[in-house]
Design brief:
Elements (H helix, E strand, L loop, with lengths): L1 H30 L3 H14 L4 H13 L3 H14 L4 H13 L3 H14 L4 H13 L3 H14 L4 H13 L3 H14 L4 H13 L3 H14 L6 H24 L1
Helix pairs in contact: 1-2, 1-3, 2-3, 3-4, 3-5, 4-5, 5-6, 6-7, 7-8, 8-9, 9-10, 10-11, 11-12, 12-13
Length: 249
């Protein structure tokens, strides 16, 4: 009897070791962006132990990078069925729903991820993005604001809230959020062009020009630089016309 127990333990240890070996190899391949090879090794681990949540998680992440989001969701869902406290699996499943173009399906995954670990702001941000993509703008704004209050150093929350406010033509509010962002990080160059656009839309042309110039000083070769240069020329032209009209009068 003792020999049988020992043999069972030995078999179990060997099984765990094989699964671990395949996962270690798969992780290394995944880190090298060799996703097909990594997926093959995660599958080998699953064939040995069909109740290993990490193998399903790894496989799901591989299929996410291979842009097969439906398969990725299926394997990540399996990981969460095995381990209902698996934060990373719920988070990645939400991301895959977003990538698949079904943001309303992502909400449930991100809510569960937040329930498991409410201290990670990225899941809360993605929840806000999901609601925004579902055109639930008030809810998205509320989530972004709550995130700003609870994690004041999380700059992405400011950026997403200001972008949504601009989308809703609420430029005054957006400029205030962007100013808060600059106070936290004066090197956050996208905030300068954001404020410039807000002032531009609000008719505050001189303020807009000032922030457009600040942006160009920071990022003269950005993909947005040409737009900013063109807008500055336009504003300069409008200003010249305005001065000429005053002289005529």
């Amino acid at each position: 009897m003792a020999t049988e127990v020992t043999n069972i333990k030995t078999i179990k240890k060997a099984k765990v070791k094989k699964v671990n070996d395949f996962c270690v190899k798969a992780d290394a391949l995944r880190n090298e962006n060799s996703f097909k090879e990594a997926a093959s090794n995660y599958l080998n681990a699953i064939l040995i132990d069909r109740n290993d949540a990490y193998s399903y998680y790894g496989l799901g992440v591989c299929f996410k990078h291979l842009k097969n989001y439906a398969k990725a969701i299926r394997y990540l869902e399996k990981a969460t069925e095995i381990d209902n406290e698996y934060y990373d699996a719920f988070f990645e499943m939400g991301v895959c729903h977003l990538l698949e173009g079904i943001p309303c399906g992502a909400i449930k995954s991100f809510v569960r991820a937040i329930q498991i670990n409410p201290e990670k702001p990225e899941a809360i941000l993605q929840l806000g993005i999901s609601h925004e993509l579902c055109e639930e703008y008030d809810l998205a704004l509320m989530i972004y604001q709550k995130l700003i209050e609870n994690s004041p150093g999380f700059l992405k929350a400011y950026e997403h809230k200001s972008t949504l406010l601009m989308k809703l033509d609420r430029y005054q509010e957006a400029s205030k959020i962007l100013n808060e962002l600059i106070k936290l990080n004066p090197e956050f160059y996208r905030a300068y062009v954001g404020i410039a656009i807000c002032f531009d839309k609000l008719g505050k042309k001189s303020d807009a020009q000032r922030y457009y110039r600040k942006f160009l000083i920071m990022k003269p070769f950005s993909h947005q630089a040409q737009f900013v240069k063109n807008r500055l020329l336009k504003l300069k032209s409008l200003n010249s016309k305005k001065q000429n009209l005053k002289l005529v009068e």
